[in-house]
Amino acid sequence: VQLQAFGGGLVQAGGSLTLSCLASGRTFSNYAMGWFRQAPGKEREFVAAISRSGGTTTYADSVKGRFTISRDNAKNTVYLQMNSLKPEDAAVYYCAASEGILGSSRSHRYDYWGPGTEVTVSS
User: Fold this and answer.
1) What is the DSSP letter of 35?
2) Which value, to the nearest 10 degrees, does the dihedral of the CA atoms of residues 120, 93, 58, 100 take?
3) pLDDT below 50 — which residues of the chain?
4) What percent of the residues of the chain are helix, what percent strand, and what percent coil, each to the nearest 5?
């Protein structure tokens, strides 16, 4: 499956941004999806995951209550709604697809990765 993330950009602290990730090539609903991010000089970290059906979501503690992951299987798209953005949220955000059912916070559980989209948060 091929993945392409969209929606990154520059936003002020406290603002909102929605990332989208469009999947192609395989049946999208056969994959759990996840968002990860990597800031300069830091390791890639888990942000959020969603099950194949969309019924189960998981979040990193750092984004819980501020970010929302969702998916539209008819549109082959997974979203990451980011609210109350903080400077520490600035990173390159990556979407990933897993052949698992529920999704995972572990990056090695994901089989396909897209190129990232950069989010910059100004203070």
Assistant:
1) E
2) 180
3) none
4) 5, 50, 45
Do strands 9-12 and 117-122 pair parallel, antiparallel, or not at all (unpaired)? parallel
d(CA 63, CA 106): 16
C-alpha 70/C-alpha 9 separation (Å) is: 20
CA distance 17 to 9: 8
Residue 34 — left, alpha, or beta (φ > 0 → left; ψ -120 to 50 → alpha)?
beta
What length is written for the chain?
123
Cα 35 to Cα 14: distance, rounded to the nearest angstrom:
20
Could you read off the pLDDT of 87-121 as tens digits, one per residue? Answer: 999 999 999 999 998 889 999 999 999 999 999 99
Give me the torsion for CA of 55, 58, 63, 69, rounded to 10°: -30
